[in-house]
Each structure stands twice: as C-alpha cells, then as structure tokens.
Amino acid sequence: MATQSPTQNQNQGAESAEPAANVDQQGATEEPVKQSSTPLVFVNSEPMREEQVQNAVKFLSHPKVKGSPVMYRRSFLERKGLTKEEIDEAFRRVPDSAPTVQTGGVTQDGQVKSSSNIQQQAQPQALQPGLPASAGVNTSSATLSRSRFHWSHALIAIGVLAASGAGTAIVVKNSILPRLKSWIRKVVVEEDDEELKKLDRKPTLVEEAAQAAKSAAAAAADVAKASQDMLISKEEERKHFVEVVSLLDMQVQEMKSMTNALRRIEAQEDLRVTQTNTKQLIVNGKADYDLHSVRSTSPPVSYEPPSSLHPKSYMEIMNMVQRGEKPSNTRPWEVSQVQNSSTQVPHAQGNGEYLNSKVQDSTQSNGDGDDALPWWQRKNARIREIGNETEYNGNGSSYGVASNQPPPQRTWVPPQPPPIAMAEAAEAIRRPKPAAQKDQMSDTQSVGNSSDVSDEVTRIPRRSESEGAVEGGSSSSIPSTVEIQEDQELRRE
Amino acid sequence: MPVFKTPFNGYSVKFSPFYEDRLAVATAQNFGILGNGRLHVLSLSPNPSQPFTEIAAYDTADGVYDVAWSESHDSLLVAAVADGSVKLYDTALPPTSNPIRSLRTFKEHSYCVYSAVWNPRHADVFASASGDCTLRVWDVREPSSTMVFPPHEMEVLTCDWNKYDDCIIATASVDKSIKVWDVRSFRVPIAVMNGHGYAVRKVRFSPHVRNLMVSCSYDMTVCVWDFMVEDALVSRYDHHTEFAVGVDMSVLVEGLMASTGWDELVYVWQHGTDPRAP
C-alpha cells in the first residue's frame, strides 16, 4: 500500500500549497477541486540502489547478525542511509529474516482503515513468528545448556570449597593446637630459667644500676637543655603569632564595616524600586554584584564542572538513582492526583509573584509614556532603554569592553560593579603599610576577596595602567589587583 | 523582562498559535531522571508587577519532555511524557477531566524519539527525530513511515519544518551541528551550521522570516541563524545558567522568543534585546 503511491506520484509536481484533504489509499489521486498529491512528495523518489541492496543482503546473511533482534538490523540499515524500499528488498532476498514493521495499538473507534491494516498485517505476522521461533528455540537451548553448565560448574565449585574448608579446619586443629601447647610450655620454662639467672646477677646488677643512673642523669640534663631552647623559640613564635592575630582582627573589622555599609546600601536600593529606568539598571547590576560577593566565595555557578557535561546536582541525582535510592521530592502517583493540580495553581502563582517582585521590572516606568500595547510588543521601547543604558555606561563606567559598544542589544551586558561605599576604608586599604604587615595583609585579602575572582579576569587589562600608581607594591599578585580595583572605584567617584 | 520560575526543571516551551499572550511549559522533576512532571499554561499580562499568571498546571506521573499546541483548537495541547505516552489536555475543561486520552502510537524507531513536529503546510504529515540517528517522515493516513534517512552520525535531538517552504526541514544533533535538508533530495544537506559548543537540543524556524531559525544547546546559549547566508550566526544569547533545553518563537508577535532550561527559568524577550534586562 505504501509503495503503490510513490511510484504513481513520483513525477507529479510538488509546488502546490493546498493541503490534500483526502488521498485515497487505493491509488486514485485525481479528484476534483482542491485535491493535490503533494503530501506524497514526502517519500523516497529515488530508484533502488542495487549496490546498497547487495551490501545489505551480505550484512543480513552474516551469522552474527542473524542472532540479533530484527529491530537492530533494520535500524542499522537505516542509519547507513538505505531507503525503505532498499531495506525491504534486502529483507526479501534474505529468506528467513522478519522485516515487517508493525503499527501499535490503535484506540480510536470508527477507524476502519487502521483496523483493516492491523488485520492484514496480523496474517503475515502469524507466518513470520513461526520462523524466528525456531531460531529462538535454538538460541535459547544453547543458552540453557550454557546455563546448565554454569549451574553444574557452580555446584562443583561449592563442593570443592566446602571440602577444602573442612580439610583446613581439621589440619588446623591437629597442627596448631599442639604448637600452641608447646609454645606455652616454652614460655613457662623460660621464666623459670630467668628467675635462676636473676639471682646470679644481683651483685653485678647494683653496679650496672649505678652506671645506668649516671647516664640517665646526663641524658636528662641534655633533655632539659633542649626543652629550654624549644620553650624559648616557642615564645618567640607566639609573639609573632599574636602580632599576626591582631592584624587579622583589624582587617576583619574593616571588612565587617564594609559589608555592613554595602548591606545598608542594598536595603536602600530595595526601597528605590519605582525610580527611573536607567537608575534601575545600575541598581540591578549592583544587586547582582552584591549577591555574588555576599553569598558565594566560590567561582560562579555558570561555569560547567570540568569532570562532566552535566550539572553537579544532575550527577548527584543520577548517582542516587543508580544506587537505588529515590530522590526525596517525588510524590507517589495516584489516580486522584489530578485534583491536586487545582490546589497547586494558587501555590505556584504565589511563588511566581514573590519571585517576580524580586526581579525588578522596568515596565512600570514605561507605563506613562508609551502606547497601550503590552510590554512584549513594545519593541521600540526596548531599544530606547538599552540606548540609555549604554549612554550611562559610556559616561561612568570603566568596566569592560562590551558595555561601551553601541549595538549591545544582542549580547548580554555584564552587571555594573558597586561603587565604593566607605571612602575611608578604601583609603585605609590603599595606603602603604610596612612590609611585614603587608605580607600578612595579602593573605587576609586573598581570603576575603576570592569572590571577586570572576571580575579579576576583566580587570587584568587595567592592571598595567594603574600598577604605577600603587605605592610600594608587593610581589604577590592578589593584593595588587585588589588595590587596583579600589583605585578604579575611587577614580570613578 | 519577566522571568517565571518553575518548580521543576524546564524542558520545553511553546507559544500558543491562537493567543499571543499564552504559552505552555513542559517541566520534569529531578532533571527528568526520576520523578513527576508538570505542564504549565501561562499567560503574559501587561501588569508589570505580575507578568506571568498561571492559567493551568497539570501534574503527570513522569516527567513531561515536550508540549505542543493544537493548531485547530485553541484550548488543546499535547504533552509528551517520559513514560512513553502522549497525553492530550484541554484547558477549557475543568482540571478533573484532564488528561483526555492517548490517541495513537507510531512505533518504528528503535530508540527514544526526541522530537516530533507537524508539517505546517500539510496537515497529515509530521516528522520525528530519534536517538537511533534517523529522521522519519510520517503520514497519518499511512500505517508506516513514508521516509527515513540518517541526517547525522550521532543522535538526532530535534527537527523542525520551515514555515515558508514545505519541503525544507532542519535537524540538529549531538554532534553540535545543525543541518538543513530538502526532503526531495535528502542525500546532501542544503546548509550545515556549526558554532555550538555542545549538543544542540532544539531548533525552531521563525514564522516571520523565511531563512531565520533559532536553536538552543547544552552550551547554555540560544543562537539565531540565517541558513542562506555564508556566515550564518546572527546572534547569540547567553542568559541561561544551566542547559538551555527549550526555545520557541511566537507566531503572533514578530520577534518574540521564549526559552527555558534546567535552571528552572523561563525567559521571554524580543529578538535583538537582552533577555536579562528588567
């Protein structure tokens, strides 16, 4: 049936735009008014390639292939680019393989055609299962014999193991027990001997004891000297340590004050939601930056884990499932679950509202001056806003290259870094300090500023310009870049 | 631009062909490995403080991998569920009588079917892309597929018909490339587009511009291509922080696109603007 239509309609034109209402399966395609045969252009109109068919026949005749499921054979040939006709021809030429395609259960009523299809296919299928059944029996008996072999193998192995275990147990009993007894006897005999020897050595023992005492005293004196030296060095180290701790405390306090100031700014920004567009964009940038610096001290999540392509939580869930555990948030499925969908709706809405209020939406500012179109149709307004943003960026920013280009609409504009909140803290950090303290400062700053790792990459081009400005620069790179950041932010003010 | 947060990981998003403010989102729990799924029907509202309202949400026993709106009935949609069934939903009916029924099964692929798309010109023809590396074209009046060919050497994850030329179909695969074919001469592709860093998960032709198409990939980007031009990449959007898995272009509003991904976010934006701008 399927093969009749392509041969008949191969040569017909394919340019019609009208969808065919009904194409008769018996092959008559010329019907009045708006019928066309263009849907049947979606078939293979190539002639069969004999070479491909022969290759397929060789493939199907291979004994290994004969043992594989029919689905895999067909799929392999399809993957090699053979057309349906070629595959069918190959299956026809190789006698005992079962090529037909079955359509699954049809549940619609009144579909006479589909039911007749099933009936027609059921008959040839009844013949073909007879053929693969015999092949199946052979293979299954082979596997059975192999499996029986396995069973007998297993039994024999178990028997051997049991026998060997019993044998070793008996041997152990016979050999080790007497050994134990003899060993005990030996020990007892030795003790008796030792007692006798002790009595003989008593007078000489006294002299030896005296000598030993002297040497012990000398050793004790040495030990005492060594411990004294150690104590001295320890005290020196402790002094250093105390100094370091005090400096750390100072740094920590400064950091705390800075974070407090930043948090205050954040709180103020949340109150300024209804202000104009351009300010909101900057605010957004700040908020994002704050979230980054406050929350995480690890590289941003958008970097893919180097070990695998999938996100880490995906791998966690995969591991859980493979171990046989179920992720905890799945609900057991019941038929009555459908009713819960209505209760879920207000809950989901509540979530959506909460999150959307967090995300600052600029359309409120657009409401006054624009048309009555909904936001997603205001194409012009979008471009205007981004134009404003680029203007502001051009004036105040020294951040990166992308934000200063005129057509940034297509690319993501990175968020703006926050300006300095406390000038005094910035000044204090920027001022040169004695060399010893500076080294310790580098350690603390590296700990506190690892969140800025992602921004360092973009700041590196700036480093060459402002390195000259850093006074008494230390050798480590991290404090110098931090100072450069502070420089930039100060200058921006 | 507003963002909608789904409780599960997003898999597919489709605009309704009848209502310009309506879209459907298919989601699956636990990245689709194990768990339930949910189909959301959202409405975009001009009210800026609440840009998304959820019209309906249907829970399923297994993850929902794809959703499609009917083009003849404004309230019907079809969900592809991970347990192998295809479920039909009607948003006009109360939630208790959904889903309606499973219609018909076409069983010919030898591995998962990742995507199935109706031909926009011929109402009985559809194409399916499968993990067995083949693309099949079907006609519902025929009992079996009418065409089959291997567009890629690796699993074909997606396919889409061109909305202006009814014989052109695009496929994209794990091999990171997108190929555009003419089904009448399917031995050689019309165009091959490389540029994604990882497997391309979904392609969609634009309903407004003949040569324009959009794709999303596991490299977390959404790219727009023009396949008739030598340098095909038109723009690239980098807004997702996890795999970008679903993308769609609206039929009713020119240039409006939506995308979703495993970061549980749905973005809706105009082509040429920044999806993350507020």
UniProtKB/TrEMBL annotation, chain A:
Keyword Transport appears in the UniProt entry: yes
Biased composition (Polar residues): 1-14, 23-39, 99-118, 329-346, 357-367, 390-404, 442-452
MF-aspect GO terms: signaling receptor binding
InterPro entries: PEX14, PEX14-like_M_plants, Pex14_N, WH-like_DNA-bd_sf
Amino acid composition bias (Low complexity), ranges on this chain: 119-133, 467-477
Chain segments annotated as coiled-coil in the UniProt record: none
Subcellular location: Peroxisome membrane
Peroxisomal membrane protein PEX14 central plants domain mapped to chain residues: 147-266
Region entry Disordered, spans: 1-40, 94-139, 325-374, 389-493
Principal location: membrane
Membrane topology: Single-pass membrane protein
Name of a matching Pfam family: PEX14-like_2nd
One GO BP annotation of this record: protein import into peroxisome matrix, docking
UniProt keyword terms in alphabetical order: Membrane, Peroxisome, Protein transport, Translocation, Transmembrane, Transmembrane helix, Transport
UniProt feature, compositional bias: Basic and acidic residues: 456-466
Occurrences of domain Peroxisome membrane anchor protein Pex14p N-terminal (ranges): 49-93
Membrane spanning stretches: 151-172
GO cellular component entries: peroxisomal importomer complex; peroxisomal membrane
Skewed-composition ranges (Pro residues): 405-420
Entry similarity comment: Belongs to the peroxin-14 family.
Cited function: Component of the PEX13-PEX14 docking complex, a translocon channel that specifically mediates the import of peroxisomal cargo proteins bound to PEX5 receptor. The PEX13-PEX14 docking complex forms a large import pore which can be opened to a diameter of about 9 nm. Mechanistically, PEX5 receptor along with cargo proteins associates with the PEX14 subunit of the PEX13-PEX14 docking complex in the cytosol, leading to the insertion of the receptor into the organelle membrane with the concomitant translocation of the cargo into the peroxisome matrix.
Subunit structure, interactors included: Interacts with PEX13; forming the PEX13-PEX14 docking complex. Interacts with PEX5 (via WxxxF/Y motifs).
Protein name per the record: Peroxisomal membrane protein PEX14
From TrEMBL, chain B:
GO term, biological process aspect, one: protein import into peroxisome matrix
Keywords attached to this entry: Cytoplasm, Peroxisome, Protein transport, Repeat, Transport, WD repeat
Species whose genome carries this gene: Arachis hypogaea (Peanut)
Family: Belongs to the WD repeat peroxin-7 family.
Pfam families per UniProt: WD40 (PF00400)
WD repeat ranges, renumbered to this chain: 106-148, 149-185, 193-235
Highest taxon listed in the record's lineage: Eukaryota
GO molecular function: peroxisome matrix targeting signal-2 binding
Protein name per UniProt: Peroxin-7
Record-linked InterPro entries: PEX7, WD40/YVTN_repeat-like_dom_sf, WD40_PAC1, WD40_repeat_CS, WD40_repeat_dom_sf, WD40_rpt
A GO term from the CC aspect: peroxisomal matrix
Secretion signal, residue range per the UniProt entry: none
UniProt-annotated location(s): Cytoplasm, Cytosol; Peroxisome matrix
Taxonomic classification: Eukaryota, Viridiplantae, Streptophyta, Embryophyta, Tracheophyta
